[in-house]
Amino acid sequence: MIVLASTSATRQAMLRNAGLEFIATSPGVDEKSLITANPHWRPRETAVRLAEAKAIDVSQRHAHAFVIGADQVLALGDGIYGKPRDRAHCREQLRQLRGRTHALISAVVVAHDGKIMWAHADEALLTMRDYSDAFLESYLDRIGEDCTTSVGGYKIEGPGVQLFDSIAGDHFTILGLPLVPLLAQLRAIGEIAS
User: Fold this and answer.
1) Could you confirm whether 71 is annotated as catalytic?
2) For the domain with range 2-188, which CATH number is right: 1.20.58.1000, 3.40.50.450, 3.90.950.10, 3.90.230.10?
């Protein structure tokens, strides 16, 4: 049995579209507290550690299941950006990212019986164009409350793609789940057909 330690609609859709049968459940992990308690974590380590915490939490509640944990962080240098709290916070983040290149780091892990058995992280580089303040306000009007559902306040599978000059990296990594390496691992452990 496969359990996804996430209620992310995007991650669920990726797994469903890949033909996986799974159940999804919300992990009981306070991400902000973990990050605050570990200021020495670099962005890649943060993504992996958060994915591990989610997978272990859910794995302890689902004996013998293979639990997939995932997390994504947006890094600008050593700074980490989370999901915006509200429209004003989203505006602030997008102004800071405007005209610059940032990294989206997505981590995925598999846990079994409360222990991590595999972990992987991947990175994509995205360069935002130097859009006008008028465009930014129009974008925020268009996406509304959706601005609080993704790191950085955008989704490239929607209007957020208009914020960018260039995008380099795996599409699934950008969406928040390095899917191809995950599928390879699930085949290697015999959880899906090889």
Assistant:
1) yes
2) 3.90.950.10
